[in-house]
Amino acid sequence: MxxxxxxxxxxxxxxxxxxxxxxxxxxxxEAQVKTWPAWxxxxxxxxxxxxxxxxxxxxxxxxxxxxxxxxxxxxxxxxTLRDAKIGFTGGVxxxxxxxxxxxxxxxxxQAALAKLRELSQPLGGLMGSSGQRxxxxxxxxxxxxxxxxPQAAMLDRLRKTIEQSxxxxxxxxxxxxxxxxxxxxxxxxxxxxxVPGLQDPTRLKELLGKTAxxxxxxxxxxxxxxQAQAGRxxxxxxxxxxxxxxxxxxxxxxxVLVAGGDLTDAQASFDQRTGEPVVSFKFxxxxxxxxxxATQENVGLPFAIVLDNKVISAPVIREPITGGQGQISGSFxxxxxNDLAILLRAGALPAPLTVVEERTVGPGLGQDSxxxxxxxxxxxxxxxxxxxxLTYRLFGVFANIAVAxxxxxxxxxxxxxxxxxxxxxxxxxVLTVGIAVxxxxxxxxxxxxxxxxGRNAISAIDAGFKRALATILDSNITTFIAAxxxxxxxxxxxxxxxxxxxxxxxxxxxTAFTLTRLIVAWWVRWKRPQSVPI
Amino acid sequence: MTHTVLIGLGVLIAVLTxxxxxxxxxxxxxxxxxxxFDFTRFRRISxxxxxxxxxxxxxxxxxxxxxxxxxxxxxxxxxxxxxSGAADIAAMRTTLDGLRLGEVQLQQFGDAANVLIRVAExxxxxxxxxxxxxxxxxxxxxxxxxxxxxxxxxxxxxxLLAFGMLGLMxxxxxxxxxxxxxxxxxxxxxxxxxxxxxxxxxxxxxSISQVDFDLTSIAALLTILGYSLxxxxxxxxxxxxxxxxxxxxxxxxxxxxSINSTLSRSIITHFxxxxxxxxxxxxxxxxxxxxxxxxxxxVVLVGTYTSIFIAAPxxxxxxxxxxxxxxxxxxxPAKKSKA
Lengths: 534, 339
Prior knowledge:
- The complex is a heterodimer.
- Chain A is built from 15 helices and 18 strands.
- By secondary structure, chain A is an alpha+beta fold.
- Chain A has 3 domains: about 5-50 and about 365-525, Multidrug efflux transporter AcrB transmembrane domain (Multidrug efflux transporter AcrB transmembrane fold, Up-down Bundle); about 60-120 and about 135-155, Hypothetical Protein, Haloacid Dehalogenase-like Hydrolase, Chain: A, domain 2 (2-Layer Sandwich); about 210-360, Gyrase A, domain 2 (2-Layer Sandwich), CATH 3.30.1360.200.
- Chain A has a 5-stranded mixed β-barrel. A 4-stranded antiparallel β-sheet of chain A has the order 7-8-2-17.
- In chain A, α13 runs parallel beside α15 (about 490-525).
- Chain B is an alpha+beta fold.
- Chain B has 2 domains: about 35-65 and about 155-320, Multidrug efflux transporter AcrB transmembrane fold (Up-down Bundle); about 75-150, Alpha-Beta Plaits (2-Layer Sandwich).
- Chain B is about 65% helix and about 10% strand.
- Chain B has 11 helices and 6 strands.
- In chain B, α8 (about 215-245) packs antiparallel against α9 (about 250-285) and α9 (about 250-285) packs antiparallel against α10 (about 290-310).
- The longest helix of chain B is centred in the last third of the chain and has 33 residues, at about 250-285.
- The radius of gyration of chain B is 26 Å and the shape is globular.
- At the A-B interface, β17, α11, α12, α13 and α14 of A face α1, α5, β5, α6 and α8 of B.
- β17 (about 355-360) of chain A pairs antiparallel with β5 (about 145-150) of chain B, so a sheet runs across the interface.
């Protein structure tokens, strides 16, 4: 137990040294570290609870995604049957998460079934090998054909929706000009957004809470809004309310002239005549062509600029707009014009997002937490160090050296992993100091016991290490299991705690098995002790 | 001020280190070298006490319940600091009551400027919580600094609770499986009883003290579990070793010897953990206060007691050591350990 080959000793010291050195970048200002080579840039990241900032958990409305898909299937069915000239009665209905249609003549049922089966695509495109399809078409009997979306297809669609949403969210968040935001997918239907340093997430939430589906549609002038409200609504039109108060109804045609996807740019600016804030936009080529054609056909008629099913404004087309650019005015403030421009540039979300969890920490509290955590860590360590010195004297010095290296290694490993340090994480480090001390206590108490049992100094030290190390391993593995479970189930701060605790256990076992032993072995070789001052 | 104290303590450490290295320091022992307490006989008192305490804790859990924080109950929590230096709680209460948000709790903490505002979960799903926090923010306006705002919607809170409980179970089960492999099943069972006992008593403590039960509390419970097991494993390790060595020693005596020989380690380790926790409790600030308080109770009070008075003696009832071989002892007990 007390004999180390030269190479082994060198290996141990080098490992400890390299791990400790990994903590070095934390002691230099960030700007300076940035100029270092990439491999040297790894450092601890402060959690939002320490540096302040906003954490938002957004959820995609999976019911919306499902409804959209079913509506789409319904439209497809209608079109397919019309194209094939197959009659159906009672319309195409969406019922119980499935689309149903009743074929008028039973003789047509087989032909209809074959046609509708063509709508079903293999899941995952051409590469799909699962054999699953995105639509299940079944004969429900009595001429009724039922089309349902299988669970796997729905999840696939949800996954794509989330991926698209993340891109849009990224663009919108980046527009805010924040430093190093984190945007990640979480679970099946959630997106996590972390913005360090953001004190008031109100504007961010407003930006992310809008789908920003922009459409240019014609106003239906055949019916006045009040009559339409009373029920005389043409089938190809719908009733929409104005975006700005007071809520005013508009009858707007369902057909979309140009959609927001055709926009290439949007900027907030001021109207040259009235001086009020407006949003000017540019279409891409196809958008410009569609828009110019539509405006040519409808001179003198009003069209509606619709955002998320609310009418922003409904100007009258005075002359054809052929240049592919225009501006939206509609009682904007500078801020709201800016936000709309951001939303239009970033594009529309495929489905609405809701904030399901929000945690914001102001910079004052973060700074307080760091100071308090540091103070507690210092005081705790000092108390423990003094206690160890008083209890074990020279061996207390050994223990303190080992624990100090242990803590340095924890910081080194955390930096190497670019781990996030949270307040519970600091608590985890303080607790690890306790565990690290315990490993030394176990060894020393065992040595004392062996001495009492009548062994001579060197044999007692040897036996003490041998027996205590088995116990240290056993007890640390159990604690490590608890830390691993915490890491697995925890989020945010709890995870930070689990990480520091887990890493602390690893370094503790390493130090106990190698460094502490090495220090004592050197001392034994140097002193050749007849008694152990423990 | 604190810096001076820290520097002073640093100097003290330096001096002590030098003195200790020179071998001039007297040894301080908080536990005598040889102890011979009859811990196992005490089981006739400790088991009924533990059973009674557990029943009290469970009753408390069902009558008083836990003070669920917003993590598990949903709702909004705002930590604000009055810019004027002293918060006018009464005025704030009037303002917030005017918003008609249901139950709103205000609590002053730290100095006079800090106020914790809790708004109960609003009916109407996730969007309603967002509206509520917006209302509170605009009602209080710029008169306060928003140090912390947390909003947890109804679905997330449900998931967090389920996940927390699942994690606790998962941890217990996986640790048990490990112990079962490493020892015998009786040890795993004994450790589990000791564990559940710890957790039940700690939950009772949380119920009495009504500290916020949130995600951090789950972390605290798991840490208590880890520490307590750590202790139990150290004693079990020793019992196993003794079982191998002294084949004929009566079980109660063997257990006593095991506990007594690890006693100084148990006490010293718990003393150091107490020192670390004490520092966290006194200086760690409000945010981890309840965490450390729970840890203090669970690790220091319950954990130590359990490993000594419950985890080891219970092995007698689980039949450990009954079927040892009738081989002659290779050494006389309690005199010399065999090399």
